[in-house]
Design a protein that fits this description.
alpha+beta, 3-stranded antiparallel sheet, 9 helices, 13% strand, globular
Length: 201
């Protein structure tokens, strides 16, 4: 699988009907289904991976490199996150999303990709995980990235906490909207793009 193969998945970010576009794409290139599933699974299962990918989603589209120091400053919910960040970036590299470069001679360790880091982050957090029955041991291999069976059982299908928002669009017109309390930046960007896509006169 090459970089340009994975970049085909980015076309899904522009589609209003994700399911239809996803089915068509993965029928033509079935190996992309596995790549997509692995990315979305690790996003959902690991807090450090999620933080890294959410950080990617906030970058400019033409950014192709990110150093570990910067990522570490954005992962403040996990103690001693640096080794886990490095492990996850190496896993991304193993999945052909880019290359992990170990810092030497004054250079910092970093993740580099020919692909847009922003789009990788948006792809990971932008859509629901496809139902997958694969039992792959190559799924971003790491003992820290795979939850124990008891963790899965206790965290399965959590009920999202909802926050009510009121937006005054015009002096005489308010919009009420319910959003998840743990809404990610990637999801916010997705929602913003949806609003921008609405037809206006």
């Amino acid at each position: 699988m090459h970089d340009n193969d994975l970049s085909n998945l980015f076309s899904l970010l522009e589609e209003r009907d994700f399911t239809e576009a996803y089915d068509e794409l993965t029928q033509r290139k079935p190996w992309l289904k596995s790549a997509y599933n692995k990315l979305t699974r690790v996003y959902k299962r690991n807090a450090v991976a999620k933080s890294v990918l959410d950080r990617f989603a906030t970058l400019s589209e033409n950014v192709h490199s990110m150093n570990v120091d910067d990522l570490e400053s954005h992962v403040n919910s996990v103690e001693k996150a640096r080794p886990q960040i490095i492990e996850f970036l190496k896993s991304l590299a193993a999945g052909k999303w880019g290359t992990f470069v170990t810092g030497r001679k004054g250079h910092v360790s970093r993740f580099e990709s020919k692909l847009s880091l922003k789009k990788i982050g948006q792809l990971a957090g932008g859509y629901p995980e496809e139902e997958d029955t694969e039992q792959s041991t190559e799924d971003f291999p790491s003992t820290n990235l795979v939850p124990r069976a008891d963790e899965v059982a206790t965290s399965a299908s959590p009920v999202p906490q909802i926050l009510k928002h009121r937006f005054l669009l015009r002096p005489d017109y308010a919009i009420n909207i319910d959003l998840p309390a743990n809404m990610t930046s990637a999801e916010a960007n997705r929602f913003a793009e949806f609003v921008k896509s609405l037809p206006f006169n």
